[in-house]
Each structure stands twice: as structure tokens, then as C-alpha cells.
Amino acid sequence: DIQMTQSPSSVSASVGDRVTITCRASQAISSWLAWYQLKPGKAPKLLIYAASSLQSGVPSRFSGSGSGTDFTLTISSLQPEDFATYYCQQTTNFPYTFGLGTKLEIK
Amino acid sequence: QVQLQESGPGLVKTSETLSLTCTVSSGSVSSGDYYWSWIRQPPGKGLEWIGYIYHSGSTKYNPSLKSRVTISVDTSKNQFSLKLSSMTAADTALYYCARVEMTMVRGVINYFFDYWGQGTLVTVSS
């Protein structure tokens, strides 16, 4: 299975900050990477697909980059609604696998 | 806006079979453009992909669960379902259903989970 390693596992930040989350795959996955936002009691939300494509309706402060094994999710200016847990996922090989998540907390 | 809603028992006994259903609204499980998937998240842990099904009935499962999993689709009810047998405490989790989109991006077909249900908590107890 392809292992997805996210860092950091948690981060504290303030509204308006720029935050970057990284995801590293245990083998090359081209650009077959997606980022999701999870909040308790809500349906998970797709933010980025194909490593850098912004899902329709997602604010432009979210961006993704990378290919091969190293990827990043950047939130350019944190808003109160962005405090959540973020997961990366690869869909190159079966089984599809996720990172362990990055919890974004209010400082 | 496509909506997915999981339903099923919140409590299952050890060794029994879990049955969950995902009802799809404002979208069709008969569409050839999507797969339909189940994912779970044990308390305090990460996400685990369980498997998916195509409208034709073709399936793909996570090898770690393959011997115990069956995913089926009912196009007449616009639903798809999960059965997981021989449940143990390790199967206690929040279970999500999701739609898997297939889209050509930069000349390559990409797969990603574009709509999810809110999840249903399943607890396994003796």
C-alpha cells in the first residue's frame, strides 16, 4: 500500500495567517492527490483534486501544489471557518489511502 | 447539489454483520460517470477506504477488508449498500458514503471523492 505522511499533525494559527500542510507519498503518485476538509458532524468537503485543481465553490485562498511524492496544501489567509482537520488522499493505486490528518486549531 | 445520506444501525453485536445503506439525492447511481464508495474513520484515527461499486455492479475492495465486505447497488431505489461481516470492536467507526468522480485532468483520468454523506457512527459491542 502507498503510505501518505502528513505534517504537521497539528498546527495552531490565527485568523489571517498563511498555513501550509505537506503530504508525502511513499512512492510516486504523479498528480493523483486530493485534499479534504473534515469538521465534526459535517460531510467531508473536497478542496483540491489532481494535486492543484480547485474544486468548484471552494474559496481561492485554498491552493495545492506538487507532483510525484511531495505535495502541499496552502491556505493563504485563514478564516474562522477554516479551523478543521485536513486529509490528503492518493488514488493512483489500490487501495486508495489517506494521510493521518492535520488538525488546524485556533491560536 | 448531490446529497448522500447513510442509514443503518448504530449498534452491532460482535460477530454479527453490519448493513448500511447510502441514499443518493439529486444524482443517479446509474450514471456511468461515477463510482460509489464507502470510507470509515475509527474514533481518533484516520480515514480508511473500504471499497467502491460501479452502476454495473463491478466492485473494488480494500484487501484488508475484502474477505468480509460486500458492496451492492440498487438502481431502482437510487441507493448503494455496505455489508461487513464478523464485526469486532476494531470495526467501531464513523462510516461515510461518497461519490467518486472520474475526470480528465491534463490528459489523465483523475479519481476523487467529490460528495460525501455526513457519516453514521457504528459501535460494536458484545
What can be said about this structure in brief?
Chain A has strands at 4-7, 10-13, 19-25, 33-38, 45-49, 53-54, 62-67, 70-75, 85-90, 97-98, 102-106.
General description of the model:
The complex is a heterodimer of chains A (107) and B (126). With 107 residues, chain A is an all-beta fold. Chain A contains no helices and 11 strands. Chain A has strands at residues 4-7, 10-13, 19-25, 33-38, 45-49, 53-54, 62-67, 70-75, 85-90, 97-98, 102-106. In chain A, strands 2, 4, 5, 6, 9, 10 and 11 form a 7-stranded mixed sheet that branches. In chain A, β5 and β6 form a beta hairpin. The radius of gyration of chain A is 13 Å and the shape is globular. The mean pLDDT of chain A is 96. By secondary structure, chain B is mainly β. Helices cover 0% and strands 58% of the residues of chain B. Chain B is built from no helices and 11 strands. Chain B has strands at 3-7, 11-13, 18-25, 34-41, 48-53, 59-61, 69-74, 79-84, 93-105, 108-116, 120-125. In chain B, the strands form 2 sheets. In chain B, strands 2, 4, 5, 6, 9, 10 and 11 form a 7-stranded mixed sheet that branches. In chain B, strands 1-3-8-7 form a 4-stranded antiparallel sheet, with no helix packed on it. In chain B, β4 (34-41) and β5 (48-53) form a beta hairpin.
